[in-house]
From TrEMBL:
Origin species: Streptomyces fuscus
Entry-linked PANTHER family: PROTEIN YJDN (PTHR33990:SF1), PROTEIN YJDN-RELATED (PTHR33990)
UniProt cross-references to Pfam families, sorted A to Z: Glyoxalase
SUPFAM superfamilies, sorted: Glyoxalase/Bleomycin resistance protein/Dihydroxybiphenyl dioxygenase
Ranges of residues in domain Glyoxalase/fosfomycin resistance/dioxygenase: 4-129
Region (Disordered): 59-82
InterPro entries in alphabetical order: Glyas_Bleomycin-R_OHBP_Dase (IPR029068), Glyas_Fos-R_dOase_dom (IPR004360), PhnB-like (IPR028973)
Record's protein name: VOC family protein
Domain of life: Bacteria
Length: 136
């Protein structure tokens, strides 16, 4: 899979409605995963969106999620997402993006099985890097 670069929007409880709206605007296939889908069924966030992805016929990809309860989105309500399965390429991007910036989530294996990290580069732009395992 080629690496992908796309916006990742952060919401405060309205991710499902927003992502469904964007699907109506742009068309395409929408996949939504709640916090409950990832083992947090008893949490107040169980029905909130942990990860949503819209892929459109025009080639757009838009991702979004609800911030965990009690956490504010911060200065930005977006991040730039880099994802794919080329670990060395994506780790190289991570190293360069995080150098001189601030790491908020170290690049490491997560509960959904991928390697993931979040940082803000030295120019104040928030980034998310997700490395999935190569299939096949």
């Amino acid at each position: 899979m080629a690496s992908r670069l796309n916006p990742y929007l952060t919401f405060t409880g309205e991710a499902r409605q927003a992502m469904e709206f964007y699907q109506q605007v742009f068309g395409g296939e929408l996949n939504l995963n709640s916090y409950g889908d990832f083992g947090q069924q008893d949490s107040p966030m169980a029905d909130k969106i942990m990860h949503g992805m819209l892929e459109t016929p025009g080639g757009f990809t838009l991702m979004g999620a609800d911030n965990p309860e009690g956490e504010q989105p911060g200065e930005h309500r977006y991040s730039v997402s880099l994802s794919g399965d080329d670990e060395s390429e994506l780790r190289g991007y991570w190293e360069k993006l995080s150098e001189g910036g601030q790491v908020s989530v170290p690049l490491e294996k997560q509960m959904w099985g991928d390697v993931f990290g979040m940082c803000t580069d030295r120019f104040g732009v928030p980034w998310m890097v997700n490395i999935s395992e190569r299939s096949g």
